[in-house]
Amino acid sequence: MKKNIYFILLMLLIASASQAQLKIVTTIPDLKSIAESIGGDRVDVFSIATGYQNPHFVDPKPSYILKLSKADVFITVGLDLEIGWVPALLNSARNQKIQKGGEGYIDASTNIPLLQIPSSVNRGEGDIHIFGNPHFWLDPLNGKIIAQTITNTLSRLDPEHQGQFHANLKKFNEAVDAKIKVWETTLARFKNTKVIAYHNEWPYFEQRFGLKIVDFLEPKPGIPPTPSQLAKIIGTMKREQIKIIINSPYFTAESADLVARNAGGKVVTFATSVGATPEIKTYIDLFDYNVGQLVSALQ
Amino acid sequence: MRLFCCIIFFPLFFSFTAAQSPLDSAAIADSMLTLRLQAEMQSQINPVQTVSVARSASSTNPDISAIGDFRTSYSSTGPRNIETYFNALEVQVSSVVDPYAEANFLFSFGKDSLNGDFSAGLEVATLTSLSLPYSLQVTLGKFKPHFTKVNTLHPHAFSFVEFPAMIKNYFGDEGLFMEGMSASVLVPNPWDFYQELDVEIGRSASTPALDNGGSNKLLYSAYLKNFFELSENSTLGFGLSGLSGVNALDLNTVMAGTDLTYKWKPVQFNTYNSFTWQTEALLCRSDSSSGNAVQSYGAYTMFEYQIEKRTFVGARFDYSGLPMAKKSDERSASLLLRFQPTEFQILALEFQHVNSNYGASYQQVVFRAIFGIGTHAAHAY
Q1: Do A130 and B54 touch (CB under 8 A)?
Q2: Pick the CATH number of B126-371 from 1.10.10, 2.40.160, 2.60.40, 1.20.120
């Protein structure tokens, strides 16, 4: 009898071990959404930043160290986007798997064709990212590259379920491909529309959907708008008949509203990440939302 | 107990290189696959640059930063009321050493308040493990021990220009430093909140409360850090610390400390508004040659409010005794106005009124400009 109980307990233990999900921590919710699309029920994903938070400035709270200490996989945007907080968390996580170069460390920028790589860098130019503009997830085609990178790592860590991961990748890619045609068709009539943005975080979206971002409310990346910059933007908008200012959820609308009022334009708040508004639940929703916002503003 | 600690520390530190997972053939196959994918994607997208050269070129260099601290002050006491001086330059070099550890060096070029000359000093030199089992982390070298929360900060990282009186009176102007070893562990608990225990052993520099000593007596300190997320926007930190060492008479000194920190920072607009309230207290018991122990204590409470993206205001109240003088104490009140054009430059104006029962009362106003270049690691939350 006793032997039977031990045997059943052992079997239960083995069964639960084989069902164990991979614990994934991502820096931003977009990476969480893609990881969930690929990993399905094989992964348990937590995002440190929320969708309405500026990913440059996240406080490295000790509670995140706890999550990272137990993680099998860590997915970062990379390109120094999170340089102000990720190193502090990783150094305290005491988890070799997710350290840079570890088996569970994923740099989502791997293989991404980057834009705006500076030829020289000087802090006098503001917050310049020396490896290129890090907001690459805002092009849905780059989402496919990120998904491939995640699939590779998950397949290596959980080879038993690699078939499932590759099937999910195929499904994800098909969903993006189907949607991208819709988004491009919807925005085709607005191609080359000139817009103003608060911060330089839309070059990938701009390139994919054919917008023309003429200038920014920030005089230099990361430097708050100055009166002279706002006056310059008002002049540019009037002169070039620009009607749209793209704001982000984590910038107050005061400067954008002021410029819009004086230049006869409209402020459109784009979502920079999944979860920026309650209806944006997935990576696909993110582009549905932004395309919808742009169309209703331009019509 | 001490022998036990040494036995634990040394094997832990030298087990850094215990586990390593080599690259396997699957990784190589994946690289080939991603290379093919890259080629496919690039054919769909306008020609752009890739970054492999830039990334690899910078990856082996350590992070190097230099932080300057310039001050101008007015004091109602002393032979000269107005001073203007470059207080200190801190140069920090840090990097991952290998997959198992990181190193951090901090050199300080400070002005001697007596003769006005600059002298160089090594403030921090540490090797810290990154991947020991059981969530252990071991540090050895020279560092600021975890006795009280504020002591671990370097002056440029503290909101106010002057360190709290309890730190200055017990450990000197820049706090307590020690050379030795530190081990910390994340304490598992059923409520799954963050709890970290640090234990440190070594020798401290000579300070008003502690002495390097001529005997074999070492300095022991421990810190239990607790952290709670009250909501998405607010957090509470609570710490308990203890320390045992020797004083200038080569007799025992025992200290206890506690800290409480509340922070509010709206996640969505966290660069625009924030509020911090922090209170700490310490109790010191020093044995004296008369056989009677001298007991004293110190405390401070401070708040800081961020009015808008670049402007902060704050206030602090200090009380502090002196470690070897039973009836001496000091009280002060400080007001702070801080302006941060960017995270690399801080301009602060601090007014302080100081009262003590062993000297004349005085007021001082200090302007401080902190400016940094290079890559400086983020400070702990």
Answers
A1: yes
A2: 2.40.160
